[in-house]
Structures are given as structure tokens and as C-alpha cells.
Amino acid sequence: MSNEKKSNIFSVCFERLFNGIIKENPTFVMMLGMCPTLAVTTSCINGIGMGLTTTVVLALSNVFISMLRKIIPNKARVPAFIVVVASFVTMVQFLLEAYLPSLNASLGIYIPLIVVNCIILGRAESYASKNAVIPSLFDGIGMGLGFTLGLGSLGALREIIGAGKIFGINIIPDAIEPIRIIGSAPGAFFVLACLVAIQNKIKLSSGKKPKEEAGCNGNCAACQSVCESKSDDTVKEEE
């Protein structure tokens, strides 16, 4: 393999990792997989465990689907994707039951629900079914690590603020009462909203502002008549 080809593969793989972890983070940017994100992040270890489990399934399913992309009929691709993902989820669940029973019990029903996780099916449809094996592998790893980062950070904050500890270690003095609501279901929404707001603030301050449409600046409803009048004037000028 030539050095140029190796460099190209390396750049593609790095781009896939960066895309999943930062640019299109499933939790903070794409807002995908919200069900497990909000449900299992009562602790940091649960969030990381769920994220890494999803990462393994994402990477393996992406590789397998990419290998079979020219064989799977177009009309049956979604059922085929679900069968592939379900097979890997079952294997991963058996491994968790055997070697990490406490984590398996904590995650509960959300492990089988990985089968219909929109992140996995979305990557299978949009990327793995159209690209080679190695880029698809790194796409799955990148998206999975981005998901793990989101769930881990969300779980860590909820555990620290809501229980005053992390990984079972007390880090807040007993004199300070934890905010118990953060550890409950509404708290997941509060913490997620704050993290997304911080991320958007960082993006805006770094100059990555939303694209503005010419004329209406994205607010089409407010200037629809203006746009229509402009288009009418343009037609008249052309006539």
C-alpha cells in the first residue's frame, strides 16, 4: 500500500472519530438516544457502561453491515440491519450477564433496547451501508465514544450534585446537602439542558455561528412577503 493511500485512510479514520466525538456528538449535537441518556445516567458508572456497551454494538454492526452492503437487498435493508444489531446486542448482553452482572442489572431493559437505538440504525443506514469496512469501523467507534462521553459526563454531574459522591466516593462534605432532584428523572433534563447550553455558548464564542440565510436570516415566516416581492421584481426584470 502506498504512503499516499495510507495517509488518506488515516485522515478518513481520524475524521470519523472527530465527527462522532465532537462535531456530531450523538448526545449534545444530534440529540439522539435520549431514552437511555436520561434514564441510566443516575451515576457515572452506569453512563459509561451504557456508552461502552453501545460503542461495541455500533462498531461491530457497522463492520458487518459494511461487509454485506452489496449483498443486502435495498428493499430489505432495515429488517436486515435490525437482525444484525439484535445479534450483537444479544451477544453483548450474555457477556455482561456472565462477567458484569451488577452493571447488567443496573442497565436492565435498556440493553435490549439498544437494538432500536436510533444512533445505531442511523449510522447503519447513512454510513455503514454506503462505505468501506475500515471507515465504517471508525465511524462506529467515534459515535460510540461520543455517546459514552455524553452519558459519562451527564451521569458524573448528576451523581455529584444529586448524591454528593462519584464512583461511590464522597466528595462533598456532609454539611452540604445534595440536590436530590438532580438524581431523579426531572434532574436529567435540567443537567442535559445546561450541558447543551454550555456547548452552544462555547461554539458561539469560538465563531461557529449558525448559518444565516440571505434576506430572511432564517426567519422565513417574518419576511415571506418581502421574498415574494423580490422574486416578483426579478421576474419582471427578466421579462
What's the arrangement of strands in the largest beta sheet?
A: 1-2
Strand-pairing-aware structural class:
mainly alpha
Radius of gyration, whole Å: 22 Å
Helices, by number, come to: 9
The parts where pLDDT drops under 50 for at least 5 residues are 210-215, 224-239
Let me know the number of strands: 2
Instruction: Determine the fraction of residues in helical runs and give it as a percent range.
Output: 55-70%
Mean pLDDT equals 83
Distance linking N and C termini:
59 Å
Percentage of residues in strands: under 5%
Task: Output the helix-strand order.
Answer: HHHHHHHEEHH
* Integer tally of domains: 2
Q: How does the major sheet shape up?
A: 2 strands, antiparallel
Q: Mind explaining what this structure looks like?
A:
The chain has nine helices and two strands. The chain has 239 residues and is mainly α. It has two domains: 203 residues, no CATH class; 28 residues, no CATH class. Helix 4 crosses helix 5, helix 6 runs antiparallel to helix 7 and helix 7 crosses helix 8. The protein is globular. The N and C termini lie far apart (59 Å).
Could you give the topology of this structure?
Layout: H1 3-23, H2 34-39, H3 44-67, H4 77-99, H5 101-107, H6 118-128, H7 133-163, E1 165-166, E2 169-170, H8 185-205, H9 224-238
Antiparallel strand pairs: 1-2
Brief rundown of the structure:
The protein is mainly α and 239 residues long. The protein has helices spanning 3-23, 34-39, 44-67, 77-99, 101-107, 118-128, 133-163, 185-205, 224-238, and strands at residues 165-166, 169-170.
